């Protein structure tokens, strides 16, 4: 029974209005992911998804961020000054979560189906997930301390999800 309540908790916690810092950190990270995804789609001339659609795909990926990447090491802390390569790898750890979220969204709109992904769309989504972390790490030291706190709380949530993941080695 505990596993089923964990599912509900993971879905609700990133958006719980009682946890203001976590909610704001989640929204800030979603906004960064959507902006990066939209920019990549504009550059590649493959702008087939709107702002709102990208937002709910990336929002739906948050409950899976730590659990789907349980077999990876935890992300480097923003304050430790990780290299750009480390940040890209940390961002890439979220790719399984966004693929799962994309499949869920497609299942809700098309019905249950075999996951026949458009390869270009999949690469753009994975690339945007990988590039968001370095972008956030770059601007982290320039944003107000309240925004930094929110992002640290969101990272802590992902770390806790990873620790509780059944995929953890």
Question: Overview of this structure, please?
Answer:
- The protein has 169 residues and is mostly helical.
- It has helices at residues 2-12, 20-43, 51-61, 84-92, 95-110, 119-140, 145-164.
- The radius of gyration is 16 Å and the shape is globular.
- It has seven helices and no strands.
- Helix 2 crosses helix 6 (119-140).
- It has one domain (2-164).
Helix and strand layout, with pairings?
Layout: H1 2-12, H2 20-43, H3 51-61, H4 84-92, H5 95-110, H6 119-140, H7 145-164
Helix pairs in contact: 2-3, 2-6, 2-7, 3-5, 4-6
Key traits:
single chain, 169 residues, mainly alpha, 67% helix
Strand content: under 5%
The gross shape turns out to be globular
> What is the alpha-carbon Rg in Å?
16 Å
Q: Main beta sheet: strand number and arrangement?
A: none
Instruction: Return the domain count.
Output: 1
Helical percentage:
55-70%
What letter string, H or E per element, gives the SSE order? HHHHHHH
Tally of extended strands? 0
What is the terminal-to-terminal distance? 23 Å
Which class of secondary structure composition applies to the elements?
mainly alpha
Number of helical elements: 7
Q: Report mean pLDDT, rounded to a whole number.
A: 81
> Low-confidence runs (pLDDT<50, min 5 residues)?
none
